[in-house]
Specification:
The complex is a heterodimer. By secondary structure, chain A is of the alpha/beta class. In chain A, a hairpin with a 3-residue loop joins strand 3 and strand 4. Chain A is globular. The termini of chain A are far apart. Chain B is α+β, with helices and mostly antiparallel strands. Chain B has one domain: Ubiquitin-like (UB roll), CATH 3.10.20. Chain B has a 4-stranded antiparallel sheet, with no helix packed on it. Chain B is elongated, with a radius of gyration of 13 Å. Classes of the chains: A alpha/beta, B alpha+beta. At the A-B interface, helix 10 and helix 11 of A face strand 3 and helix 2 of B.
Chain lengths: ~475, ~70
């Protein structure tokens, strides 16, 4: 018997076939939340978005952290998501901005949000200078992720890192499969010397069978070598598993164990449930999706309760339903314990200090940038604060020392043409600089229709703007 | 909050109101539900606690920011 659907809220989405904007509704069926919509031309669509109503309500209770971006550059013409650049309808600042420095890759994965290939022209250093100058003109420095394609196929990647650092960006990470880091001695050090903070390492499991399935090659040994190279170079490493149902969801606990055993070199695990844009084998069914609460439950089950689903909370600045995160301490015997969960979420931040009990909404993205940079970069060395004679502050020292040994587990659910909720998209704080120097929310940039049509990625219009 | 002042602090610090030399005393510093017991210079008369500027802008600020950052 089918469960009765109860409407939860109205929103907007797009048609997976033609990408036109459609009214959409979030509905509850049994214990699960779906997004439903109907295109007058292509019919009705219904997609799972959250399995577990209790956590859905808790995440929703965080409320919106919407804030107006300091700079908008594209006018509202056709409405979200067709005016990205960013338009005045957007509702969050940039936290992390991706620079796609190449469309080339040295793998050929069956699943790839960027549809990367082996050939193609890379943007010049002058073009990249233009991107980062434009970003810098937007105000306070965002975190930068070098992405692609596979960024390390560019021999001048260290020079790109240097140029970003020279413009006073505080945190630079590279999103990589790790092949070059593993194969080329000294390469990790050259990136570290240029100012790289963090390696955002694709890491889908702890067995080669997983890599053969998702990436088309045996990669585990190379991943391990890449991590060792990063350790030697003083680079922080974040493991980034793409979770695919029936492929590697059963590896979640093993991935955590692998990471904790290599802390503090590995600073975090950041799970990304598979999303269906770019290149993927077939149109997805609901059984092809794992939602964020399921990831949290698997973390609890597969860690035998060492990690609890209740250790996690929504992110601080993006739409609550886009992510979860939890902070943990690593004990000497490799166990995780949750850090205190009371946070600034209910109190004024030091900078706003208005006494209202909540940080000013515009503070959230800067704080999120600072938290990510602090957690994902290599373990911080003690700050150079001189001792003060005549007082005893051992408890402050102990607290700060313990904080340096923390570990984070997080997850982010990207949206595709099936499950896109424009309310979430408007609050997106992960952005991509397009070749035309427009700043575009990640899920809009990568959005593709079921026939592969893209709104923004490398279209002729976009190139004309460039 | 200060408790049981004990060891004398550096002699140059004096409470302006009580004209008593400050002494080292246990202080519970609380922020966002977390408490830290430290020893700072206190007035044995009125309980005034002296927080050196380098502490307020240094490690105390680092602890505050760490707690705010969850």
């Amino acid at each position: 018997m089918n469960a009765i659907a109860s409407p939860l809220a109205d929103t907007e989405s797009v048609c997976p076939a033609c990408l036109r904007t459609l009214p959409a509704r979030r509905v509850l069926e049994g214990d699960d939340v779906y997004l439903v919509k109907r295109c007058p031309e292509h019919g009705a669509f219904k997609t799972i978005v959250w399995r577990g109503f209790e956590s859905y309500q808790r995440w929703g209770a965080r409320g919106s952290r919407a804030a107006t971006p300091p700079v908008t550059e594209t006018p509202i013409k056709r409405g979200c998501p067709h005016d990205c650049g960013i338009c005045p309808d957007h509702r969050q600042h940039s936290c992390c901005v991706l620079l796609e420095v190449t469309q080339r890759c040295n793998l050929n994965c069956p699943v790839c949000f960027a549809s990367a290939g082996r050939e193609g022209d890379d943007p010049s250093l002058a073009e990249i200078d233009g991107w980062i100058d434009r970003l810098r003109a937007h105000g306070s420095p965002v975190n930068i992720q070098l992405s692609g394609g596979e960024p390390t196929v560019r021999d001048d990647l260290p020079e790109i890192v240097r140029r970003i650092r020279a413009r006073s960006f505080d945190f630079v990470q590279v999103n990589t499969n790790g092949l070059r880091l593993a194969k080329e001695g000294g390469y990790a050090q050259s990136l570290a010397d240029a100012g790289l903070d963090c390696v955002f390492l694709q890491f889908d499991g702890v067995s080669d069978a997983i890599y053969r399935h998702i990436r088309g090659a045996n990669l585990l040994t190379l991943k391990k070598t890449a991590i060792l190279r990063c350790a030697d170079a003083g680079l922080g490493v974040v493991l980034v598993p793409t979770l695919v149902p029936s492929v590697n969801v059963g590896e979640i606990g093993a991935i955590i164990n692998f990471a904790v055993a290599r802390a503090p070199v590995i600073r975090a695990v950041h799970f990304q449930p598979v999303s269906y844009f770019g290149r993927y084998p077939a149109a997805p069914a609901d059984r092809d999706r794992i939602t964020l609460p399921e990831v949290m439950r698997e973390l609890e089950v597969q860690s035998d309760g060492m990690i609890r689903a209740t250790d996690f909370a929504p992110g601080s600045a993006e739409n609550a339903y886009c992510s979860f995160s939890g902070k943990f301490f690593v004990s000497g015997d490799g166990c995780l314990s949750a850090a205190a969960t009371e946070s600034a979420g209910g109190c004024c931040s030091a900078s706003s200090g208005c006494g209202c009990g909540l940080p000013a909404s515009g503070d959230d993205a800067p704080r999120a940038r600072r938290v990510v940079a602090g957690q994902w970069a290599a373990e911080a060395k003690p700050a150079n604060v001189p001792d003060i004679p005549g007082i005893k502050i051992d408890s402050f020292d102990a607290f700060l020392a313990a904080r340096r040994h923390n570990f984070s587990i997080s997850g982010m659910a990207f949206q595709d043409a099936w499950n896109l909720d424009l309310e979430r998209l408007r609050e997106c704080f992960i952005h991509v600089v397009s070749p035309g120097r427009r700043v575009i929310p990640f899920c809009a940039y990568n959005l593709t229709s079921m026939t592969g049509e893209s709104l923004y990625r490398m279209t002729n219009d976009e190139c004309a703007v460039a | 909050m200060s408790e049981r002042p004990s060891t004398p602090a550096p002699p140059e610090l004096t409470c302006d109101r009580c004209q008593l030399p400050l002494v080292l005393g246990k202080v519970k510093a609380s922020y966002l539900g977390n408490s830290f017991e430290v020893e700072l210079s206190c007035c044995p008369g009125c309980g005034f606690i002296y927080v050196p500027e380098e502490l307020a802008l240094g490690k105390m600020a680092q602890v505050e920011q760490a707690l705010e950052d969850k």
